[in-house]
Design a protein that fits this description.
Number of helices: 26
CATH class of one domain: Alpha Beta
InterPro entries: Beta-lactam/transpept-like, Glyco_trans_51, Glycosyltr_51/Transpeptidase, Lysozyme-like_dom_sf, PBP_transglycosylase, PCN-bd_Tpept
Strand order of the largest sheet: 5-4-19-18-17
Protein name: Membrane carboxypeptidase (Penicillin-binding protein)
Distance between the termini: 97 Å
Helix content: 25-40%
CATH topology of one domain: Beta-lactamase
CATH superfamily of one domain: DD-peptidase/beta-lactamase superfamily
Organism: Micromonospora chokoriensis
GO molecular function, one term: peptidoglycan glycosyltransferase activity
Family: In the C-terminal section; belongs to the transpeptidase family. In the N-terminal section; belongs to the glycosyltransferase 51 family.
Shape: elongated
């Protein structure tokens, strides 16, 4: 035992040091640049209001200049009172530990300096495999030799202040507080800059054994004793006068505990509905190659990378969306009514709201409405964290006639004019689709139709015929270019290259889609055919304050939070589609006639400015949709039962999405200048 205790000191000047020299040198270089894991913050659009945080270790890196001298002095007094005299390893401390350990026939006293402790913490924190973690923390003589050697080398590369700063940002203080910033906030609800001698001594005393000296225990005897020990040491080192130390020791430990929020479920009640946008952020982040090669690496970056993330939600539009889907009141229904608002030209999500409370607590939720789910399965209301609005792994909801936009846009982009006319019967037999015979919702829809009137009245037979002319596969591929994804086996099968040509029912919206996808797809039409990927952020900053970037295939570095856009169809085709899409809303197109009536003619009057859009319902009105847009905003709203798609919404509730979109566009754009749609050219009007 005595030989083992003496070995590290001998090994520093002997064979052990030579054997590990190369490996130690390489690791020392890493430690001069490696930084500990740091908390990522998610902010409201003002860039100041913290909505939540993501972390494995709650930590915010703090410079020495932003810490009270009290904590610097207290940690030196508590852990290494010869810190400023030695060069990484304290021979006196090693000798003292050797004697103490020899007398006790065990390890009763350590000899680790602050520098050695930092080396151990940094090796542990920078480890990428379980083996590296074990090597950094195992109690062996070889590990101690390496640690000492690295401490000596590190002090040649870094100043005492740099080492002390890294140490105070790495140390664990208990209660998930990693680093002095977290410890100050969790125990005293203040920044390290404002720590008093009593508070600093309390925190410094925790490092040796966070659980044993925890001041948050009901019995503070051990914590007080340890704090007083540190205050005495501070006095002995001249940091405090004897009188000041005595006065400080007479004070009780007064805590002001804070629990830092973590993950989306911790978003405050004031911003509860923002939890759905936060959840979308997580799913979006996990798909970004900029943050790692796979989902695991990307989420690790989010929890350890110290990013500053600003959501793209617009508070005014978000408030309007919440109000108009009754997010705070109408949570007691199996039918989810949700809305997503996207910004044309950027793809930034400006609002996400649904009549649900964002919460992990499902205890009071009733049983699922799906009879196949079983009595123990809870419904998705009033509480849920399911991604009902999109951006997750849920398939979505059949979107009905909102899909008629895709064959119409494909036809326009292929050169077919808006005036393309067909005498649409009530029922149409398709030879292209092997005799499939869809019909219209009403006999009043029969007769001569153009794209304006066919879209305005939602004439099924006209759009099946139009889809035949342009090719269903072309409409499917265009929908994909506009961001739609097929998440069910049935949809993937129908959308496959060898079957898409026969997917006649595609134009009737038999495929599942999410409000996020539909809002963003229609936003591309509002942006003259320029599609922008949906994005939940306006800024992402690295821990050093620089924008987070990614490398394009061409090697160009671009900001992750910048819009990613591409032209999908010609501007003229998109403008023509918009002109036809003004018909369903009761608006007046620039170039054609809507045929006398429309499916959502109240929208124009509610919005009070030029607006385009499309209604959509499915068989037996199991779900109902409306997607609407102005030049500034695009919004998609649905109502459906996410648990049981066969639980019909009914015709009586089909107006709810129409009102939600119209009122949200009205309220969200209130006070902004009215913009006009650009009319299509003569060539595409026909």
């Amino acid at each position: 035992m005595i030989a083992a205790a003496a070995y590290p000191l001998v090994a520093l000047t002997g064979l052990g040091a030579k054997a590990t020299a190369h490996a130690v040198e390489q690791k020392t270089k890493i430690l001069t640049t490696a930084l500990p894991a740091e908390t990522s913050y998610v902010y409201a659009p003002d860039g100041k209001t913290v909505l939540t945080m993501f972390y494995e270790e709650y930590r915010q890196y703090t410079k020495l200049s932003d810490m009270s001298p009290n904590i610097l002095q207290a940690i030196v007094a508590a852990e290494d009172n010869r810190f400023y005299q030695h060069h990484g390893v304290d021979p006196k401390g090693v000798a003292r530990a050797f004697v103490a350990n020899a007398r006790s026939s065990g390890v009763s006293q350590g000899a680790s300096t602050l520098t050695m402790q930092y080396v151990r913490m940094a090796l542990r924190d920078s480890a990428t495999t379980p083996k590296e973690v074990q090597e950094a923390t195992q109690q062996t003589s070889l590990r101690k030799v390496k640690e000492m050697r690295m401490a000596l080398d590190l002090e040649k590369e870094m100043s005492k202040d740099q080492i002390l700063e890294r140490y105070l940002n790495s140390a664990y203080f208990g209660h998930r507080a990693y680093g002095i910033y977290a410890a100050s906030e969790i125990f005293f609800s203040k920044t390290p800059k404002n720590l008093t001698p009593v508070e600093a001594a309390t925190l410094a005393g925790l490092v040796k054994s966070p659980s044993e000296y925890d001041p948050a225990d009901s019995d503070q005897k051990e914590a007080t004793g340890r704090r007083n020990y540190v205050l005495d040491k501070m006095s002995q080192l001249g940091y405090l006068s004897p009188d000041s130390a005595a006065a400080a020791k007479s004070e009780p430990i007064r805590l002001k505990l804070t629990t830092p929020p973590h993950d989306c479920a911790a978003v405050s009640e004031k911003y509860n509905s923002w939890g759905f946008a936060c959840d979308y952020l997580k799913n979006w982040w996990s798909a970004q190659p900029a943050f790692g090669a796979n989902r695991l690496e990307r989420m690790d970056k989010l929890r350890r990378g110290g990013y500053r993330i600003v959501l793209s939600l617009d508070p005014k539009i978000q408030a309007a969306a919440e109000k108009n889907v009754g997010a705070k009141e109408a949570t007691g229904s199996p039918f989810a009514n949700g809305i997503v608002v996207s910004e044309p030209g950027t793809g930034r999500v400006k609002a996400m709201a649904v009549n649900r409370t964002y919460s992990l607590d499902l205890a009071e939720n009733p049983p699922s409405s799906n009879p196949e789910a079983g009595p123990k399965v809870k419904a998705n209301y009033p509480n849920t964290v399911a991604p009902l609005l999109g951006g997750g792994d849920l398939a979505g909801y059949q979107a009905g006639s909102t899909f008629k936009m895709f064959p119409m846009l494909a036809a326009l982009d292929a050169g077919m004019p808006l005036s393309t006319t067909f005498n649409a019967p009530h029922r149409y037999r398709s030879e292209v689709y092997d005799g499939w015979s869809p019909s219209n919702a009403s006999g009043a829809m029969s007769g001569q139709q153009t794209m304006w009137s066919g879209f305005g009245k939602s004439v099924n037979t006209y759009f099946v015929w139009l889809e035949e002319k342009v090719g269903a596969d072309r409409a499917v591929r265009l929908a994909e270019q506009l961001g739609l994804r097929w998440r069910t086996d049935v949809d993937r099968d129908h959308a496959s290259p060898d079957k898409a040509k026969k997917w006649g029912a595609f134009t009737l919206g038999v495929s599942d889609a999410t409000p996020l996808e539909m809002a963003n797809a229609y936003a591309a039409i509002a942006a003259d055919g320029r599609y922008c990927e949906a994005i939940p952020v306006s800024a992402i900053m690295n821990r050093d304050g620089t924008p987070a970037t990614y490398a394009t295939p061409g090697g160009i570095h671009r900001e992750v939070a910048k819009p990613r856009c591409r032209q999908v169809v010609s501007a003229d085709a998109a403008r023509a589609a918009t002109d036809a899409a003004r018909c369903p809303t009761g608006d007046t197109p620039a170039r054609g006639s809507c045929g006398g009536w429309s499916t959502a003619d109240s929208v124009r009057g509610t919005v009070g400015r030029p607006v385009a859009g499309k209604t959509g319902t499915t068989d037996s009105t199991r779900s109902a949709w409306f997607v609407g847009y102005t030049p500034e905003l695009a919004a998609a709203s649905f109502i459906s039962d996410p648990d049981n798609p066969f639980n019909a919404v009914g015709d009586g509730q089909s107006q709810i999405p129409i009102a939600a979109v119209a009122e949200t566009l009205r309220d969200g754009l209130k006070g902004t200048p009215t913009r006009q749609f650009t009319p299509p050219s003569d060539a595409i009007v026909g």
